[in-house]
Amino acid sequence: PAESPWWREAVFYQVYPRSFADSDGDGVGDLRGIIDHLDHLADLGVDCLWLSPIFDSPNEDMGYDVRDYRAVMAEMGTLADVDELIAGCHERGMRIILDLVVNHTSAEHEWFRRAVADPDGPYGRYYFLVEGTPDAPPNNWLSFFSGSAWRWLPEIERWALHLFAPGQMDLRWDTPAVRREVADIVAWWLDRGIDGFRLDVINYISKPEGLPDGNAFVGQLMEFTGVETYFYGPRLGEFLEGLRRDGFTRRTAPASTPRRRLPDGTLGDPLPPDEVGVMVGETPGIGVELGRMLSAAGQDRLDLVFNFDVLDTPGHTRWDAYRYDPEYLKRYFLGYSSRLTDADWLAVFFDNHDNPRMLSKFAGGAESDPDVRTAVGKLLATIQLTMRGTPFLFQGQELAAVDQAFSGPAQMRDVETLNRYASLLAEGRGAAEAWAEILAGTRDHARVPMRWTPDGGFTTGEPWLAGTDRATGFSAQEQAADPDSVYSWHRDLIRLRRANRALTAGGIRWVRPERRGYLAYERFLGDDRFLIECNITPRPLHRPRFDGHVEPLLGGPRTETMAPWAATVGRVR
Ligand code: ISL
């Protein structure tokens, strides 16, 4: 492909602002902290930052409950800081996208307050406010954060829908004014210079007419009731096309644009503005085929979607303590590459702020050995950064971040975790059993502060959530100074991608996929060919024969035996 959209060849990096860097000692990360560390990200080589929520919020769900879409959370900074951050990214040749959480708003949003003040007025139609009696919710849908998805509002004698926490009120997208408001918010931020958005649970926005009950059998099967009625709702496609047209298509010139990155690594003049901001959909429950329907090029819906099937081996959820089956990862990517056409493109991710660390799931505890930790960190980076698709790194992956040894529920901060713990106890499960489940799956593993220096470096105060990892060698400072570190491996791979489009835009051809323990493929474009080989076992592996001369680039030459968890990248001559 001669030209591909910028986001197909980019490396994205997710920042969880609350835990990235705290510049003022209040224990909460902030925008100034991100600005101060932009050189870390530029040095790593990332092309686009994605910031988890920074908008004004009461933080019942850490910013995924927005009170004002045009204001910054006080503890994170000001609009002027956002402007400086945008300019700082663009100046370094990076783009930046924000998180758009519009399936729901906070109950403290002005729209919801007006809706409650006058449920029959225009704002009453912004939400799902359903008349009834306090003993019978309108349907059997459950909340992702435990209990019914409905909350009784005695002051107006109506039920209000919340698929997530009780303070996250679902918006009624069928109301045209809601769609206009959201499009205007997007346009407002694009004018400020933002390059697009990640769209939170965007596949849930179209609820079916009449809000029918979820199927009880499916509910049992999924251990969750109702989701099949709205996870790909009747008007989803129409809503996305409208949002793209009315919100993401530029109305005016942005405040700034990123500088062009030249092949030799230097920076050129600012690029012309992208005509459309990038739309990255967070789409839980959407498999390969529905994902294609939402993101195929030319459909004018989303540009990229996250497919969550990668996160856990079938038969397990993140609430089990288990060792991930790497053969499943291979089958997952094999399946993907065999079903996608040139119109489809995959977001490739292993970690985010909602899941434990993939490195720990893979190593299954063995990552307490620093050599295993380093090997698995490099292995996962190799797959993520050379697979066909757009990699989304989550902060800390470049430092081989692992799960934490939390000691008990008192250390937890996440609403999902705390609610789940309480409801397990209420079901009669013992405290030890309930804690084991929480410890395996809590979102707080990923949300602990970045380790900038051996003894922390995130804040001078008390961090809002404390990590427990103290292993030597895995802070940013130590990693950046070590040419053999997981950090350097990421940086080298990203440089290699940049210099060789075969690794980004090129095709993929699997090598000996039937061979257990061996995950290997070629990436190619024109005459350029690269061979990527991984030993996805904790044991040495005999390397299969390969027809062709391979010049080693990363991880050393093609020795007959591959070390446990080893990965190599070579150029095929
Ligand atoms: O963690 C989950 C609950 O088990 C996931 O289902 C998660 O809630 C889902 O992927 C949606 O996530 C997004 O929306 C949530 C927010 O809490 C998550 O942080 C966000 O990524 C509600 O806004």
UniProtKB/TrEMBL annotation:
UniProt superkingdom: Bacteria
Record GO biological process: oligosaccharide catabolic process
GO function terms (MF aspect): alpha-amylase activity
InterPro entries with a match to the protein in the record: GH, GH13_cat_dom, O16G_dom_2
Region (Disordered) residue spans: 250-274
Residue ranges of every copy of the Glycosyl hydrolase family 13 catalytic domain listed in the record: 14-447
Family: Belongs to the glycosyl hydrolase 13 family.
PANTHER family, per the entry: ALPHA-AMYLASE FAMILY MEMBER, NEUTRAL AND BASIC AMINO ACID TRANSPORT PROTEIN RBAT
Protein name, UniProt field: Alpha-glucosidase
